[in-house]
Amino acid sequence: GVLKSGEVYFHLTFNGRQFMIDSKICFVAKSPSYHLGDIRLLKLTSYQQLEHLYDVIVFPTKGQRPHPNEIVFK
Q: Given a cut of 70, is residue 73 above it in pLDDT?
C-alpha cells in the first residue's frame, strides 16, 4: 500500500491515449448520492508502482477506515 489516507490513484485511457492526473483534488461519490457524506474529496496522486493500472480507481489501504467504506456506510 503506497497510497496514504486521503489519496487516490487514477490513470485514464481515452481514444487510445493515456492520461495521468497528479496533484489535483477530485471528488468520489457513490450513485445515487443522497447525503453530503456520500462524497469524498481526495488528492489524485501518481506512484510509479501503480502505473501499470489504468481505467480503475485505486484507494489506499492505510487509514482508520477505507474511503469506499466511509462513503457506503455511516
A: no
